[in-house]
Automatic annotation (TrEMBL), chains A, B:
This is Putative competence-damage inducible protein. Residues 4-170 form the MoaB/Mog domain. NCBIfam families: cinA_nterm, molyb_syn, PncC_domain, PRK00549.1. Pfam families: CinA (PF02464), CinA_KH (PF18146), MoCF_biosynth (PF00994). The lineage of its organism: Bacteria, Bacillati, Bacillota, Bacilli, Lactobacillales. Gene3D superfamilies: 3.30.70.2860, CinA-like, MoaB/Mog-like domain. Belongs to the CinA family. It comes from the Bacteria. The gene is cinA.
């Protein structure tokens, strides 16, 4: 089973956009046991795409194309592939209905060219796009399968997960299946994790262990290649137990689509605890991260953004003398912020963030210094000092992740 | 002058590494007036690379290869290219001296395989590597030029800047340069923008117009290909004037690295205005977006996250009767939130967000309904109702963008 990925878009050839779709698709296809032999990028040029398809036909069983499904005249992927295999384009009724619905509820006018997005290749399977308007197609001709997906990653990824993966699993079943499990860790770097697990990683054959570093966390993918599902799960259970023996304290949850905020909100719900926040350098990023989770209103009612000295006094009623004496980037300020926020919002738990996001130091403290306070009903309030690095955005994100972990550990009592 | 980029490395095909080298090289080559027609990724497999070189020879004047110059057995790029053009590999003395110097100052033992890194293709020009050990080669054979560079971006980039760029400028002097300008638009979709500019786009030759849709905004890149910089800027000025005649009302700023929040914060600074917010469904995302901008403390002191009915009353002092009578997703609530936030934070301008992020409807209002309030000192407070779509995250981001645009328009109006 040989596959290749063709990304269509002049913006990629001009270096304006990075081809992250090829990376994403490669990882997904590998996971399905489909080997990728080539990535190619070609501009919005039907002749060159047609030439490329001629080559790809001969060397690949599956050709995944991304980009060029949009409404404008330079979106030519569908037309070119259809012409190449001597098929026509037809309207997909489900995509058309979605388009009309979209523009009914939209502030933008629906221009005629949008209809192009609802065309698919006749004889193929329409792939619906949950987060966009361009419909995809999966079609097999002369033993080659063509899969057409849109270019924007925020459309391509959900389409792949929800609609393409099940299709490919059905079309291209593997004698041995890949059974995998993702473990997520917070508070340990990739190089340290790999060092701690060196013996396990060096001796891996089946199941395999693949570490993957993401911003502020590391995941481990355990994968068994085996015919029998039950036996595969047992292999993964055994390996997971060994991993947990070594680095279990940093483990927070399972799954590709999981996140620390998700696990933290679930823990709060499960224990019936509410949370609030007072944010200085993070400026609402912690609360906004909570807001990403649907149903968070059960545990989060609101909170404060106190970016300046004045708002720390005005909104939270913090003693100006304390701020003057201790400074705003201090243990005392973090504790006062958390305590006052908890009382004012009448919540079970409050977290506070005060520190130096940069680019300049503040109150003589270096960029990346962050105090995080944690106030719990019936518990002494504590604050921890962290030193983060890289840029402004990363420092603020790192602070939010640490705040989530403090709350999660407090709630599940894994202090 | 046609170029293509071939990246060699199985890790790219497995989705473990993103091909940022192709993006970097494309941008650099475009800047030198060299047009890139293809990117290809191939694994560490000499036969497939050899096949690819056979195709590339026919279609490109310049073939840039990156990756596969290292010390290990799977680093085969140099051997494959040399064999392809019937040349041999020779030791580069300068790279060899550097290798010995490196290991003299290193704690690691120099293993024999490191010598492979100092080999270049006989008859070519050696490209020294200021931050690594693998030497590159530039060689022309049968009117095709091959440029071999290492894979690690932290080696490839300095090599390109210091040693490759001057060579290419000398070898391929361009009569014409590419001069480009990016215009940014908010409040108009890509399909509508393209429809409005149809005549200009259909008749483009030089300069060209390339639209690009991003979440909640559209950019237009105007590009002139011309020998004289001044004449090029004049061409772009003329085209920009025509674009502005049609869609100027949606234009908010210039440049690839710009953003609506950046322009809005700059406008606030310029006019000496401060801003605050009361956020319900956005849950701090507006304020956090402001917090991304360094130096925002001059115009932003803090604000409120009032996710529940209770916190709207407690934090902002909104009349419970109003909330009961009008509902929280209402014009009256948005206006009260903005007015109260402005007063409590003593700011010049306040924005408020209240609406339905989903997945379920709220107070009988459909998912995506958002009221955004705008309170300005000395002006009547207003609120607009927007209907956004897609998912929770997109609805909240869309609301934040609209809030920024309302503030920007309010501030620049009073010039």
């Amino acid at each position: 089973m040989k596959a290749e990925i063709i990304a269509v878009g002049t913006e990629l050839l001009l270096g304006q956009v990075v081809n992250t779709n090829a990376t994403f698709l490669s990882e997904e296809l590998a996971d399905l046991g489909i080997e990728v032999y080539y990535h190619t990028v070609v501009g919005d040029n039907p002749k060159r795409l047609e030439n490329l398809l001629g080559e790809a036909d001969h060397r690949s069983d599956l050709i995944v194309l991304c980009g060029g499904l949009g409404p404008t005249d330079d979106d030519l992927t569908k037309d070119t592939v259809a012409a190449h295999i001597h098929h026509t384009l037809v309207q997909d009724e489900q995509a058309l209905a979605r388009l009309h619905e979209f523009f009914t509820f939209s502030n933008n006018a629906m221009t005629e060219n949008n209809l192009r997005q609802t065309l698919m290749i006749d004889g193929g399977i329409a792939i619906q796009n949950p987060t966009g308007l361009a419909v995809g197609t999966l079609i097999t001709k002369n033993e080659t399968t063509y899969l057409l997906l849109p270019g924007p990653p925020n459309e391509l990824k959900p389409m792949f997960h929800h609609n393409v993966r099940p299709l490919l699993e059905e079309r291209f079943p593997q004698a041995e299946q890949l059974i995998s499990r993702v473990l997520r860790f917070y508070g340990i770097g990739e190089s340290q994790l790999v060092t701690e697990l060196k013996d396990l990683i060096d001796n891996q054959t089946n199941p395999t262990i693949a570490p993957y570093a993401k911003p502020n966390e590391v995941t481990l993918r355990l994968t068994a290649k085996i015919a029998d599902e039950m036996a595969g799960q047992q292999l993964l259970d055994d390996l997971e137990a060994k991993v947990m023996d070594t680095v279990g304290d940093y483990f927070y949850g399972y799954g590709d689509d999981n996140s620390l905020v998700n696990v933290t909100v679930e823990a709060l719900k499960e224990h019936g605890k509410t949370v609030t926040a007072a944010e200085s350098l993070t400026a609402g990023l912690f609360q906004s991260t909570l807001g990403d989770i649907s149903g968070v209103s059960k545990v989060f009612k609101g909170g404060f953004v106190t970016y300046s000295v004045e708002t720390k006094e005005q909104f939270l009623g913090i003693d100006p003398l304390l701020l003057k004496k201790e400074g705003t980037v201090s243990e005392a300020c973090a504790i006062a912020m958390a305590e006052q926020a908890r009382k004012l919002a009448d919540a079970d738990i409050a977290v506070s963030f005060t520190g130096v996001a940069g680019p300049n130091e503040l109150e003589g403290q270096p960029v990346g210094t962050v105090w995080i306070g944690l106030a719990e009903k019936g518990q002494p309030t504590v604050a921890v000092c962290q030193q983060f690095n890289r840029d402004r955005r990363y420092i603020r994100q790192s602070a939010v992740m640490k705040g989530l972990d403090l709350i999660r550990r407090a709630v599940v009592k894994k202090k």
